[in-house]
Structure formats: C-alpha cells, structure tokens
Amino acid sequence: MKGTYLGEFEELVLLSVGILIDDAYGLSILNALEKQTGRTIMISSVHKTLVRLEEKGYLRSFMGGATTTRGGRDKRLYQLTRAGIKVLNHSRELRNDMWKQVPSVIWEGAK
Amino acid sequence: MLPPRLAVRMLRAFCNKHLSEAILGDLTELYEHRRTHMSKRRADALFYFNVLQFLQPFAVREKKIFMQSNPYAMLQNYFKVGVRNMNRHKMYTAITIGGFALGLATCLMIFLFISDELSYDKHYANGDRLYRLYNHYNNGDGDKWMSTPASVAGILREEFPEVEKAARLIPYKWYNGGNNLLRKDDGLENTFEEGFAYADPDLLDVLEIPMVYGNHQQALDKAHTVVISRRISEKYYGKEDPTGKVLVLNDDKANAYVIGGVFENFPRHSHLDYDFLLTLTGVEFWPGEQTSWCCWNYDNYVRLRADANVPDLEKKLLSIRDKYQVPYLNETGDATSADVKKYHLYQFQKVANVHLNPENVSDNFSHGDTRYLWLFGGVACFILALACVNFINLSTARSANRAKEVGLRKVVGSGRCMVMRQFLSESLMYSYVSFAFALIITVLALPYFNSLAGKSLSLPWSAPWFLPAILLSAFVIGILAGLYPSFYLSSFQPIQVLRGTLSRGTKSSTLRSAMVVFQFTTSIILIIGTLVISRQIDFIMHSKVGFEKDQVLMIQGANTLGSSQEAFKAELQKLSDVEDVTITNYLPVSGTNRDQNGTWLDGRSKIDKAVGAQHWYADEDYLKTMGMKLIDGRNFIPTLASDSQSVIVNQSLAKELGLKKPVGEKIMTWETFTIIGVVEDFHYENMKGVIRPLFLSKGSGGSIACVKGKSDKMQSLIASSQGVWNKFMPHQPFRYTFMSDNFARMYEDVQRTGRIFFTFASLAVIVACLGLFALSAFMIEQRTKEISVRLVLGASANSILRLLGQNFVKLIALSFVIAVPIGRYMMNLWLQEYTYKIPLTWDVFVVAGLLALAVAVLTISYQSIRAARTNPANGLRTE
Q1: Domain residues of chain A, as ranges?
Q2: Most buried residue among B77, B188, B644, B863 by CB atoms closer than 10 A?
Q3: Interface ipTM
Q4: pLDDT < 50 stretches in chain B
Q5: pLDDT band at A30 (very low <50, low <70, confident <90, very high)
C-alpha cells in the first residue's frame, strides 16, 4: 500500500460510492457530495476522479441502471473493489492513529 | 426536453467511447432538472458550459484497454494480403508499379545530372581561396569578360599582399595555343594534337594540378618547356618518364619544347581540360608585349590569403585601373579613358562558380545553365507527381473491392489506425518494388541519357550515402502516396459495407478528375515545349545565314603547306567537281579564329568611342566560296597592290560607324584601311544575338582550305581532294570536316534541350496514359451490368467508346484550357533569348491539344473495344 496516496476529493468520492451502493453514477455522486459537504462541485471533476480511481483499481464500472429520463441513455455505475475498500480502511486507520497521538490539551484549548 | 443538439454532437466528437454515453446521460438529466426552474436559454448555456468542461485529457484519450504485446504481429498478415491483392489484379499492379518506376527513374537520373553539374571545380583543397580575375564594365550593360593584359598577374602578385599566388593562362587559339602538329624530336611523322595552352609555372600550384613526373616548382621554370598530360605521355612514351625529351611543334625545330614534367589528366569536373601546358617563362610574343596595355589576352587565376577580404580587395584593385590602364589610354589618346575610369572594375569570381557562372562572365569555356537545372528538376518532380497521382487514383477508385475486407476487419476488432497501417504498408510495398524497378530502368537507360545530356553519369553504388538515401526516399514516397488512400479506405463503416449501401467510389470522383486534369495539363505543356523547341531549331538550321554552309568541305592543316599553298589551291580549283576554293583562318562557324578590334572612322580614334568589330583575313575567293553577297563596291583584286590596305565591311559595321555610303571611306584600327565593298550581314555567331560588326581585309594563307563542291556528292569530293592533298603532303594526315557539321555544333545545346524535352514529354504522356488506361478499365468494370445490357440491346463498340469517352474528353478539354496560357508564357520566356525566332502561332497549341486527345482516345478505345467484345452474358450472369 505504499505510495497509494489518496487525495481528499478522491476519498470523498470513494465514500460516496460506498454510501450509494447500487446507484453510484456521476450525477448521483455529485448530488450526494454537494449535500454532504455543502460545496459546489463541477461534474467534470467528479467524472475525472471516477476515471482516475478506476484506473488505480479502486473502483469497477459497468453500464446499467434503469433509464429514467436521460434521453434513453444508460448510466455508468461504479462499485468499490476490494482494493478500494482496503485503501479506505487504511486511510481511516492512519487518520485515527494520528488523532490519538494528539494530546488532549489541544482539544481542550479549542473548546 | 432535449438538450441542444450541437452541444451533444460536440461532446460525441471529442469524447472517448468509454465515457461519452454516461456523461451525456448525466448532463441530460441535469438539463431536464434545470429546465424545471430555469429558462431554456439559461439551461442551454449551462449545458454548453458543462460540455466544455469535459475538454480534458481524461475524457478525450482512449482508455487503455490493453497493451499490444507484439506490434509487428499484424505486419506479416498485411504483407500476405498485400501480395495476394497484387497478384489478383496483375494489370493494375503492373500499371501502378510501371508508372512509379518510370517516374522514379526519371527523378533519379535528373538528380544525378544536377549533382554532377553542381560538383564542377569543387575538388580543390584550397577551393575557398581560389579565384579568377575578371573585368566588369559597370555602365548598366554590365559586360563581364576574362582577358587582361600580360602584366596584370605580376601587378597582383607584387602590389597586393592579400594575393598569395597569381598565375596566367592563355586559353585561346593563338600562336601555339589550341592545336598543333606534334612530333618527337627524332620522329618523322606529325600528328595533329589539340589541347594546347600557355601557362605560368605558378598555375600548376594555384590550380593544384597533381604531377605524375616532375614537380610544381621546376616543371615550367625554364623557357621553352612544356608539361604534358598523362594520356599524351602514355600515348607517345608508354610507361617511361619523358622528362627532358624534346617535342617539335609544327616542324619548327628552332623553337622546340623540352618536356618538364607530366601532369594528371584534368578531372572531368574541371572547367579546364588541356593536354599540353606551354610555359610563359621567357615568352614575349612581340617586343614590349609583356608590359604593354594594348592587348588583352591573358586569364588570371589567383589564390588569396585565408584572411583576405574579397570586397575590400576588389576596391583596392581599382588602383590597377588608375595606375596603369587609364594612363595608357591617355597616352595613346584613347577617348574612352574617361569612361573607363568611371566604369571599369576588376573583380574576382570563385573558381568553384565558373561552370554554372552565376556572375555571367564571358569566356570561351562551355558552361552549364542554372535555369536548365531548375527546369529539369521541376519537370522530374512533376513526372513523379504524375505517377503518385496514378497510384492514389487507382487505389481510391478500386476501393470498393477492398470495402468488404475493411468492414470485416473492423467488425473483428481492428481500429481505424490499424487499417490505415495496413494500407500504408501496402503502399510501402508498392514503393519499394517500384524503386527496385526504377534502379533497373536507370541502369539500362543511363547510356542513352548520357548521350542525350552529353555527360557520363553513373549510379554511385559505392557511395556510403547512396543505399540508405534510396531506402529512405522509397519510404517517404510510399508514405506520402499512400496517405490519402489509407485515410479513404479506412473510413468505411462496417455497417454500410456489409449492408451493401456503400457508395461505390463516386464521392471522390471530383478529386480523381482533378488528378486526371493535372496529369494531362502537365503532358500538354511538355508537348507544347517540345514542339516549339523543335520548330525553333528547325528554323535556325534552315534559315538564311548569309552564307552557304552545305556542300562545303573544310580541310584542316592547310598552313603546313607553307609556300605550296597557292599551288595546292590552284590544283584543287582544277578539279571537276570543285566550284570554288579559299584558304583562311576565319570562318563563320565555331572552332575557327576570331579577332576582335576597336575600329574608328579614319582619324577619329581620339574623338569617338571605338566600335568593336571582328577583323578577318580573307583572299579574293572568300566571298565566292562562302556564297556571301556583295551588295556594294567590289571584291579584292589579287594583282592590285593597294588592296593590301583594302577592306570589305559588313552592313552592321557600316551602320555602327554611321556610314551611309561606305565605299571609298577610310577606317582605322591601328592601321588605316580603305573600304572597297560592303558584304551582306551573315551570321557568324549563334543566332541568338544580333549580327555584330565585322570587316575582311586581304590576307592569303590560313590553316583551313574551304572547298565548295559543285554537286552534293560529298564522297567523291572528299576522294578527289584527298588525292590532291596526298600529292602535296604525303606525310600529313588528311583531316576534313563538313561546314554544315561545324555549323550544327554551334547549336548543340539547343538541340540537346529539344531532345530532353521530347523525352520528358513522352514520359509524361506515357505515365498519364497508363493512368487513363487503368481508370477506364476500372470504369468499365464498374458498369459491367450497364454495358452488358447495352450490348444485348445492340450497342456497337463506338457507342461504348462514346459513353466512356464523354467524361474524359471534358477533362482533357479542361486540361488544354489550363495548359495553353502556362505553355505560352513559358515558351515566350525561352524564345526571348533569340533575336531571330519563330512566331508563337496558335497551331502549335492546337497540335499539342489534339495529340493529347488522340492518345487519350486511343487508350480508352482499347478498353472499350475489349468491353464490346465480351460476352454480355458474363456480365449479367451474377444477377
């Protein structure tokens, strides 16, 4: 797992894919992220990140999904791969480790 | 609600297949959502904005699905398929390769020619410091010429430190220069030899002439020495060293020459080619000749110091003019001295430039012409372009045959790139095969081309750059020619092909027609060129030259007769088939003497400008033998003593001197003459320029005896003249030429150009016709069903011809219309050089056009007749 540094946005996207389970495609991920983070995100950056993550092997994609009103077009649905799950866990562990090491004094100071 | 179609198309255009549908779906969903609470305008704008956001590499490049493990895997298959294709359509293959090979062979030969012309005089070790001096009269006319007085080389050497060495050469047929009769000191028989010139000892060093025997310093050091070439040395002395032996010229034992050394033959690529260099050491042709500024007969070659600045040096050279030339003119009261001071310049020309002569210095060496180099290079490229056009045309036209293959390949998974690679490799195959054939053709045709161009070229097989250059060019040409067909053929969509709705090559017919037009335009222009040039040559050869050149025998070496010349002449005149005889050195054909002088009206040499005129010596039979017309006054009378100062002028000289009634007037050079007659102007230089002034004064003796025969039976004339010669000079060979041959030689270069144009025109027409042949075959193939039906209904070969021909005739007419103005412009340019030229009449163009049309019709009719003969049942059987 060395050298597989996960960017902040990439991590958010991966988590969204996990949350959205069966309906994770470009637009739905975008809406979820905007709702959760409150930021305005461009749809192209979402797609870009999805492609990059798939290239890294953390996601797998397939065409599917019921066509609603997309001009009859299928969606490209994304799913977490085992590697993706692993890297998310690793990231969480790393964060938690470092959180634990910060002395409680800091937390109290910020209150 | 649909998003704007243009934006959708845009995205589809640049986005890769992996993402395009998904992205479009997302954007459409967004759009529909937006339309619920926004105006159409705003939603559209946002849609466009969104589309543009995806103009990023991640969306544009194809997702790498797999890495090619063996990039060369398919090449084997391409090769196999290509070969099978070639075999299946042998005729088309043969035509394509044939045309290509012809075009390539032409280019190759022209390339050899051009590189040969460019390589003259490039072999000197110190070539960048080697120059020759020339005179430039800078008054707007800008005459440039070589010869200077004898003392100039010495002045250069002594007064200009930038000059490392300076040496003179006399290249004229003057005194012992040119040709002589030669024998060894102890020999009896004389042999006629050519290639004599006078040279300073330093010339051997300046021109870096390699010595076989002897060395530069001593070879020409002493007076009356000569160095001979290797071929002369081997001819007379075999393998031994002839240094120190004595050679006698023209039986003049008192002035014999001692051989000082042997030099290597001048290389083919030198503008000089001599077999004998006679030393100028101790030479003084007449008292005071070496220091006087009267006569200009010497060429000067110099080697400058490495740090010499040529333009600066040229400015300094003006001191020669002011210190020596102008004072001399002032002393002798020459009126031109003021003009000389204003206009006369001395300049240097690099010896490396002499052959192609961009500075345009007049000398008596033959030169190449840069214009012709450009012309031939351009034409060769055009012919190659014609062949490429053939290839492109045929490939795209027959594309329907390959369509199924392309469709199938794409279905099975070939990307467009790979299909393109297949067709490119096929065209590379064609290219390499054509190159091989082109090399064979070149080897076979080179002897003919050499005689055409007057050179001896050969393929430089051993040069290290040759084979790689050939392989590289084959590669480049193959790619270039194959580019468009590959694009076109690889663009077929599988669904169209397999469904059978593919338009059968009709879409590109405009391009194809354009190419046919291009081919025929080039051919017609070349045909026009050929016709015009051959007409001009015809005109020159048969127009009135002012003297009779046919039926005249020129017997060389008459000067050796010595005192028996008159008797010899009388004997010849007694022969029954001889009409007239004259003995002279000066004739209006090439290879005879010339003597340019300044002339003035008597007594006005210090007042007027000199009129340059030729001074020829002739006897009383000259005019009659040469058939020149005396339009005023009288001929020389042999018994009249005062006639020694009499001259006959030509009309041009009378005009230049402003004499309305020349007879009886006096003119002068450095002697005074009285005009006794006027002769009609005759051409004595090649007919490009106007006839220049000339006068004849009485002089007997000369080295050429001109014998005019009564009839055109030259053989018997030769025989009888030879008989007389042998009576007088049993030990001299009887040498003769025909005046008409000498005359023709003056126009050799024009004739050569004409022949080259003819060859080019034929080549272009052949290549164009090959293309037409194949195209018409293809069109017949396309319309097999239609033709079969017509045949069944009773069509004749004629009507089929008309069916096919209609289209092509229109194209050829278009080519004609384009070719005529271009051809006319070019021919006018070429004819401008000639003062006496043919008028450019319309019939030349019509003939050229008709010729092209006729050839095209012939080509098409072969195919039509073949089609008309086929059994219509065959064409309809597949129904």
Answers
A1: 8-110
A2: B863
A3: 0.88
A4: 507
A5: very high
